[in-house]
Amino acid sequence: MERAARRSMHPMRSRRRRGLVLGAAALLALAAAGCGTAAGAGHQAGGVPHATAAPASRWLTFNTSQHTATLTLIAGYHGANSGFNYDGYSHGQMVVSVPVGYTVTVKLTNQGSLPHSAAVVSGSPTSTTVAFAGASAPSQNISTGIAIGQSAHFHFTPKAPGTFYIVCLVPGHEQLGMWMKLVVSPGGRPSLRV
Ligand SMILES: [Cu+2]
């Protein structure tokens, strides 16, 4: 009864879930085509993402021959850190590593209850200096973020190793811990650890 009431109050949620299921199907298709995931199989039984325990491999896929990696960030994935999280993680709990020369696509979806953004910055997790041209979603008005239920993406190709952060530049959010770490490695494969 309570569940039905919640659903009727939030019609967007079920629409987003269908989107996620389609996304999972696309990941399966990619895996079948020989692309990698970061850490083993990561699909929930029934195809519906669980609200609290999503495997890390859902968030990073890559292709070692094409030198591409795709990072899926769901802002406000659930209530962890009061919603100031990507994929449920905050305060640098998620560390993504990509080799130099990979083209990295970051796909941001706002599943939270506030606007959010994502940008690659350098220096510190509270930096506002975007490290690569165009490496933010939205591409402009980064501090305004994208609205609830919206998606945006960007890509960039790092040319040198280094340590960066993917942060939400809506004012106050990165200070509240809405950031993850991005390591550009000299070689190897993309990886994600939490
Ligand atoms: Cu935010």
Give a short synopsis of this structure.
With 194 residues, the chain is α+β, with helices and mostly antiparallel strands. It has helices at residues 2-9, 11-32; strands at residues 36-37, 60-63, 68-75, 95-99, 103-110, 118-122, 136-137, 151-156, 162-167, 179-185, 191-193.
Description:
With 194 residues, the protein is α+β, with helices and mostly antiparallel strands. The protein has helices at 2-9, 11-32; strands spanning 36-37, 60-63, 68-75, 95-99, 103-110, 118-122, 136-137, 151-156, 162-167, 179-185, 191-193. The chain has a single domain (2-48, 55-193), classed as Immunoglobulin-like (Sandwich), CATH 2.60.40.420. The strands form two sheets. A six-stranded mixed sheet has the order 7-6-9-10-4-11, with no helix packed on it. The protein is globular and about 40 Å long. Residues 75, 116, 168, 170, 173, 178 line the site of copper (II) ion (CU). Copper (II) ion binds at residues 75, 116, 168, 170, 173, 178.
Helix tally?
A: 2
Fraction of residues in helix: 10-25%
The hetero compounds bound to this protein are: copper (II) ion
- The class by helix and strand makeup works out as alpha+beta
Q: Which geometry do the CA atoms define? A: globular
Do you know the CATH topology?
Answer: Immunoglobulin-like
Tell me the name of the CATH class: Mainly Beta
List keywords for this structure.
Immunoglobulin-like; disordered N terminus; single chain; 2 helices; 194 residues; binds copper (II) ion; globular; five-stranded mixed beta sheet; 29% strand; alpha+beta
